[in-house]
Amino acid sequence: MTRPRPNPQQAQQAALSAALSGAVDLSGLKARADAARAQAGQQSSLGGAGHQAVPDAGQTPPAPGQPETPGTQQPPAPSAQGQYVVDVTEANLQQVLEQSMQVPVILEFWLANADQSQQYGETFIRLAGEGEGSWLLGRVEAESQMRVAQAMRIQGVPAVRAVFQGQMIAEFDGLQPEGRLREFLKAVVEGTGGTLPEGAGPAEDPRVEQAEEALAAGELDRAEELYRSLLADQPAHPLAKDAITQIQLMKRLNAEGGDDASEVVAQADAAPGDVELACKAADLQVAAGQYEDAFGRLLSIVRDGDKEAKETARQRLIELFAIVGNAEPAVATARRNLASALF
User: Fold this and answer.
1) What pLDDT does 80 receive?
2) What is the DSSP letter of 106?
3) HEC string of 5-41?
């Protein structure tokens, strides 16, 4: 029997999903950029002078300081604060957003007369340097560039907006500790197909490695203790909660190790209203990859069981959904069926 293990990839996907909540559509910017490219290309073919095509998503712009080649638009000039930092104004905003066709652009809104805002910006500048071009930092002084701030619906500073391929994909307002900024940047860069240089992402908590070692050694209690400690310190940790859920399943499977899976399933089939048997059989079926059968068994109790049985089956379903992961089609179907059964 194959036992589920904590899945770092699922954790990264969950982190990205959290980062992308509240995304705002900026497709109009991309449409204007596409139109500008088409117009520039047409003018170029007619021999028009002084018109240059903006780079498309697959075209690499010249590096800062290098001469511009025919048929490309010079990218926005880097700031004196760093090679991967641009001071954004209303005049160069479109150029900056064009860079989002290639790498994520992080727009940081700040105020020149606020010391705390400036210090926050210094952190972003340092992180941009560490990112080595995996993302571009666009700094917007909100008071002098009020129309840019209004266009991005900025209500207060500091504020951060992440744009990729003309779409705003993530945002947050207010001060955040550096660790959270690193997690945000990692989610954005990796979620858009890029990779942060080694050392540029969030530092891995040593308890994660210790917990993985405990799991490999079969020390489930120790592993759960480490993950619970991590969750207590970092309630939004992308791995700890799901890892604990999976460890609890492992423990249940170990406790039922002497049971014949087919016999348990047969007993549950013969007593469809027995929620304890149903949960036990569902655990075994999930471990065997029989997701639809496992979910269907518990959904039947959610629909037809008494109040206590319904809640027990619902909680077990939620746990199993987290273990299997949203990439599995059976999970999406079962989630919809659960919502219908409850409401």
Assistant:
1) 65
2) E
3) CCCHHHHHHHHHHHHHCCCECCHHHHHHHHHHHHHHH
* DSSP annotation string for 280-343: HHHHHHHHTT-HHHHHHHHHHHHHHS-HHHHHHHHHHHHHHHHHH-TTSHHHHHHHHHHHHHH-
What pLDDT digit, counting tens, does each position of 177-201 carry?
888 898 889 889 988 889 888 777 7
Residue 85 β-bridge partners = 137
Q: What is the Cα–Cα distance from 33 to 57, expressed in whole angstroms?
A: 11
Nearest to 8, CA basis, from 240, 338, 191: 240
Amino acid at 6: P
Task: State the pLDDT at residue 74.
Answer: 62
Q: Rounded CA gap, 139 and 160, in Å?
A: 10
Token code pair at residue 286: 């999930």
**DSSP string covering 143-194, please?**
TTTHHHHHHTT--SSSEEEEEETTEEEEEEES---HHHHHHHHHHHHHHTT-
**Residue 65 half-sphere exposure, CB side, CA atoms within 13 Å?**
5
Q: What is the pTM of this model?
A: 0.45
pLDDT tens-place string over residues 34-58: 444 454 444 333 233 222 222 233 3
Which tokens is 137 given? Answer: 């930092």
82: β partners = 79
